[in-house]
Structure prediction request, 133 residues.
Amino acid sequence: MTKNTPLVEQLRSLSRPERRSRVEELARTEFRTALLMSEGEDVPLDQNYFDLGLTSLRVTEIKQRLEAQLGCAIDTAVLFAVPTLGRLVEYLQNEILPKLIGESTASEGRAASSVPADRRALVTDLLNDLYKG
Prediction:
């Protein structure tokens, strides 16, 4: 699933650093909401978000909201294999946004390939089992 959304249109008009800031703020907002934090509270980029109190269900909800805003699928394995906000923002900036806005990238596949295939498959299988019918 890939479609143009208002957010993607906005991101196209921004410079690369501005896009990163916008995507980071978008992700922080989703995490703050899921963690019941106030707008002034900070979600650290390098702390495991499960240690902050998120559950796999809440992370999956964040993933779905980000997918709706960006109009594309986000690799579940990235969210669970290295569960930090910084890693998610890096993945969105380097792997997702270039495809959405038509920007070429030399790093294609880097985020997914940094997660071993067997671990990605395990995470996918576990989530599929967890969310069956």
